[in-house]
Amino acid sequence: MNLGPIRFGSYAISNTVVLAILVATPFAVRWMYTSALWQRAWVELRERRGVVISAWVLLAYTAVALLDSVGGHPARRGPDGQLLRSADGQVIYEARGVTLLDLLLTPWRTAREKTYSAPWARRAFCAEFVRGPDGVLRKVYPPLKYPGRHPLGTDRVGEDVFYQALKGIRTAMILGVGATALAIPFALFLGMVAGYIGRWVDDLVQYIYTVLASIPTVLLVIAFMVVFGRGLPQLCTIMGITTWTTLCRIVRGETLKLREQEFVLAAVALGVPRRRILWRHILPNVMHLVIIASVLGFSGRVLSEAALTYMGIGVGVDTYSWGRMINDARMELARDPVVWWKLTAALVAMVGLVLPANVLGDALRDALDPRLRTETGP
Amino acid sequence: MAIQGRAEKVELGDCAVLNYLVRRFLYMVPILVGVNLLTFVLFFFVHTPDSMARSVLGDRYADPAAIEAWKREHGYDLPRLWNAQARGLGRVTRTIFWQKCMPLLWLDFGRSDFDQHSIGEAIRTRMGPSLHVTVPMFLLSFGVTTVTALWVAYRRGGITDRVVLVLCVAFMSVSPLFYIIGGQYLFARVFRWCPFSGYAPGLDGWRFVVLPVAIGVLAGFGQQVRFNRTVMLEETQKDYVRTARAKGVSEPVVLLRHILRNALIPILTSVVVTIPFLIMGNLLLENFFGIPGLGSYVLDAIQRQDFAVVRAVVYLGTLLYMAGLLMVDLAYTWADPRVRLG
After folding, report:
1. What is the chain B residue with the closest CA to A361?
2. Could you give the ipTM of this predicted complex?
3. How far is CA B271 from CA B75, B137, B327, in A?
């Protein structure tokens, strides 16, 4: 398929991030294979069927999110396919970007109906009154433009719901993963430094996260979003901040404990520089706690996006998200006959992501940190 | 002599509690100041009074004169931290920080930016409906989750345990929005068991409150039961439980008399830290069910860009949260006499 000229514009960052993820994944996998803790965890996890299924589902969601993050703005074309140019001969690009996912979903993305249509329907959901040749008004359900095309129906403006549900995945994944990714470096650095060095650094870091943690999370998020306005980057930042307080507390506490362990004392006695102790001895031993906390917090962030968007302080109006789908569809259950598909699609898509994340989070915790086991038998 | 000794001990204990309380209050001061500073920076540096005036007035009417007038009317025309024009103490007190943020410390919430109503007054009148929903929710949730966790802990390792755990994870994975929308649709619209939304004060209002309470309990059920179960199972591994069993104490008695009492400490913590959310009412629940509580107050404030209200509520929420944590610490001494305040 020849796409012609493409401008990357707003996709520059997400394209780079996806590239970085693709490059970093083999290294992360290698590290996990060489670490004894992860090797043992791996063996344990692989034996549980629920965990394996969850991992595959999460991988599928991740793949969709990655596909939806690579894209650009194609050049605008005229009806016969030639490039449109401005007065000074410049190529004009589409304002709305197109991602790889959009290209894959073209049959659903472009199939616009007039208004509601039920899943797999061949005729419109809303009746129209048409005057027949004999002059009598008749109630008819006109055939759809794309009969049988929409597996989950269309919404009020005739947009395909299946397409919207898939587009919501990227937003959810950005909040679930991106917020943590923002928080982890700060949490690790400040937490380890505070725990290891102590004194005023510790006091300062503790003070900052205590202040942030003493504001109930909902209210902190509300205050932040009211000031900075709705939008995905803002939401990601504030969720990163709230995640940071949790992670930093965990890292600091664990570092305090590790500092007194023999292997660290031995390193100190041997004259290993402080930076190296933190990097080689402390970091690998707090990493699993950070990963457990991140995975366990994942579902909370995905769920709160929907609630916040419903409250009017979530993602922007031009971002596809499950919260926006629910918000759009809030009055649809009041219609008669009921329009249930958009709401259901958003909620099912959310459960499909959150349930495996919860299962995997529990399993990771059990495998990596036996002290925190939920499944303690008699 | 013995009686005297006991009296002395009690007196000492009271003194320790008082001492502890005073220290905890002193410890709260820097944190409250920090929270105050944080909201101050957010609401007056990041988002300046000018942009606030513009968003309230609307872009069409926001000429410089109107902005100045709005700022003067609402008291935002002062310098932010330091008033060089004033004299003496006025340099500190005639500032936005002193006039708008410091009064929060003594619970003077000021007036709304939107229509000048007294925020303290509004909070007082809206507290009632919020409590009407959240107190039953709190008690019911505490009771139901504790009993379920006890039952599951009694049957640990069996099929009941397995099924309840799976159900808990499933419950946790569903958006609260689903419980609210689904519950409202099913019970209010299809079965018509209770009104769709609305509120009435007093006992007559129970019809309106039943569904929100039930939904609130359901939404928090999975997480809390799992937590309680974990805590209880941890207790079952302890020596005193083995001793009790070895002495032939029956399993229900071990659970109810020994394990429950000790497990109550962490359970209380996890429950009491949710108090700010309870007093705030559940934002979503109040909005969906048309209950005129604090939650819907916050949502209205967000919609109206009423920053004074958001600021006041953030501060109030923080205060309640910290009070909740303090209560947990005090509750520790009741649940476990070995815990010393210190």
Report:
1. B169
2. 0.84
3. 40, 12, 11
